[in-house]
Amino acid sequence: GEFWDLNRNKPVRAELHRVSGSSELKRDIIIRKGNNLSLKADQEGTYLVAFQSNSAFIEMGSEAFNEYLKEDGLEDILNERKKLNQLDKDSKEYYTRFAKLLVQVGDNKDDTFKKVIGFQYEIIPVQNPYRLKTGDYLQCQVFFEGKPASHSLVKVWSKIENTTFLQNIYTEKDGTIRFPISTRGEWMVSSVKMIKSEMENADYHSLWASLVFGI
């Protein structure tokens, strides 16, 4: 991964959630390239950090945009472009990031992991990942505007030392995916949803959801 440019992807929401309540983090973010936020845990438990960026604008050439649609499983948009004979049309797009990070402090594993943040596009684990071990399966559910996002492409990333592995999985009708925990280390579950832009100067609005945790 790369550091986000927070001058471009400005924080709209930044929150820390735990079993004892939640707190606002937005005022603690430092806008710079590198580490933007430091937190000190004062009690054991499962911590959830939630971040939403503003809607940033981007333009892409037609070929690059079509490849992006293929890579992220956005077949509905690609098929619409084909039907309208717009495959050679450049794109104007807004994109918003909805990121969640789970961190375990000590041995007290609680239910904070499944808290619904209310993001427009959101990934929620069904089990606490920190209760799992290698060989177990993790189930996650993807929601768009509070409803299960069926038949959506989800990318599952795992990292061993400097090597990253990727699985592509489509959600079931109820928005769920299930995958094996094949190794200890860092994991990320991510998905992209694209909708028509409600702003006049763009054709599309993409919603980028992610969930990061460790095993």
In short:
This protein has 215 residues and is mainly β. Helices cover 9% and strands 46% of the residues.
Describe this structure in words.
The chain is mainly β and 215 residues long. The chain has helices at 62-71, 75-83, and strands at residues 11-18, 21-24, 45-53, 56-60, 91-105, 121-125, 137-144, 147-148, 153-160, 163-170, 176-180, 186-196, 204-214. The strands form two sheets. Strands 1, 2, 3, 4, 5, 9, 10, 12 and 13 form a nine-stranded mixed β-sheet that branches. The radius of gyration is 18 Å and the shape is globular.
Order of helices and strands: EEEEHHEEEEEEEEE
How many angstroms separate the termini?
19 Å
**Radius of gyration from the alpha-carbon trace, in angstroms:** 18 Å
From the spread of the alpha carbons, the general shape counts as globular
In helices, the fraction of residues equals under 10%
SSE layout and pairings?
Elements: E1 11-18, E2 21-24, E3 45-53, E4 56-60, H1 62-71, H2 75-83, E5 91-105, E6 121-125, E7 137-144, E8 147-148, E9 153-160, E10 163-170, E11 176-180, E12 186-196, E13 204-214
Parallel strand pairs: 5-13
Antiparallel strand pairs: 1-2, 1-3, 3-5, 4-5, 6-7, 7-8, 7-11, 9-10, 9-12, 12-13
Q: What are the salient characteristics of this protein?
A:
215 residues, mainly beta, 9-stranded mixed β-sheet, 4-stranded antiparallel β-sheet, 2 helices
